[in-house]
Amino acid sequence: MSQILANTLKMLMGLLLAILGLSVSFTLSAHGVDEATKQFLILNEGISILPFIYIGAKHMVTGYDHLLFLVGVIFFLFRGKDVLLYVSLFTLGHSITLLFGVLNDIEVNPYLIDAIIGFSIVYKGFDNLGGFKRVFGFQPNTKVAVMIFGLFHGFGLATKIQEFKLPQDGLVPNILAFNLGVEIGQFLVLGAVLILMSFWRRHRSYFQFSTATNTLLMSGGLMLVGFQLTGYFTS
Prior knowledge:
80% of the residues lie in helices and 0% in strands. The protein has helices at residues 3-27, 35-43, 49-61, 64-74, 80-103, 110-128, 131-136, 142-162, 171-200, 205-208, 210-234. The radius of gyration is 18 Å and the shape is globular. 33% of the residues are buried.
């Protein structure tokens, strides 16, 4: 194994472990919403397009749970059009429920929705390991599953933004700007991940480490489910 490949593998595994590790601390810190952002969301009145784009992008960049799910989704997608299709289905799903949830003031228990989002990571890791065929003897429709879990991820985003009771004045353009920011953040992070994965895929070790990588994904998802359910039953 070349030194370059070894360093790349260390970097990728380190990145995944760092994301998993951050999930522990972020879970305990209101999903990465810092104090300055909280104050802005609470005090803001009227239309604020650029700040909401920034907040949406930042929320997605620090949204470890959404990113872990997407890493699982694209892990075995080798053609650009397939990546575009699946990411578009996820984007469509979470955009629908983000806008629908906020604009119609539909509140979902944040612990339960985040537990479902954690479960989506478990699902994708299990799917990538061929678990459905081995254990249950069938393969769920992966496109439909990504779309459905995208809907749940959108409700998770809606739940976070609803915690701040945004005023009706300027709500629609502000939420549209937030959603645009989410897409920008998703595009930036996913682009970086795809570049790293594209380099790793040139080597056989990509498949040799696929079991370990997807087992890590499942472990991270189970950890998130456990944290959220613990919060639900103790709150």
